[in-house]
Design goal:
Elements (H helix, E strand, L loop, with lengths): L1 E2 L6 E2 L5 E8 L14 E7 L1 H7 L2 H5 L15 H23 L4 H15 L3 H13 L9 H6 L11
Antiparallel strand pairs: 1-2, 3-4
Helix pairs in contact: 4-5
Length: 159
């Protein structure tokens, strides 16, 4: 059994979804306290949290560039938790979009990584990070663009 990194609910053995988060953990102690920021890294999330992130509605919204905290608004701890949740969600959606994945494809990829995580969590974490860091798959905007973007087959002296 494991615990969801987002909502702290139990995840049954062989369940959950694994993904890599590139969001900066500057609000934490440790490296951030020394003036450095670190990526949050690999996350294991429950199905409810993952489907709330990887869906058409979330993918269609503009992701925030930064989230602020206002001490005058009250409970600082709640604000920090919410800001971190928004930042992580935005990072996960941005990575999936950069890879050219639709929400269902992102779910499938995260589920496959989770299945691997239960047998070898270090290998799954490395794979999740590699997928997040890989070069984006650039998709043409229209079918016409796909035809226009075909490589030229001219000889070097014909250019």
């Amino acid at each position: 059994m494991a615990i969801c990194d987002r909502c702290n609910t139990s995840i049954p053995r062989c369940g959950g979804y694994v993904m890599y988060c590139e969001a900066s953990a500057q609000i934490f102690g440790g490296a951030a306290a020394a003036g450095r920021s670190t990526e949050i890294g690999c996350l294991l999330l429950c199905e409810k949290c993952t489907t709330s992130i990887y869906n058409e509605s979330s993918f269609s919204r503009q992701q925030p560039a930064a989230v602020g905290i206002d001490p005058s608004r009250g409970d600082l701890q709640t604000q920090i938790r919410e800001a971190l949740r928004i930042t992580i969600d935005a990072s996960l959606i941005t990575i999936a979009k950069r890879q050219g994945l639709a929400p269902q494809e992102a779910l499938t990829q995260a589920r496959g990584l989770a299945q691997e995580w239960w047998t070898n969590n270090q290998a799954a974490a490395r794979k999740a990070m590699a997928l997040a860091k890989q070069a984006p798959r650039r998709m043409p905007a229209t079918p016409e663009a796909l035809v226009r973007e075909q490589p030229s087959h001219k000889k070097w002296w014909q250019f």
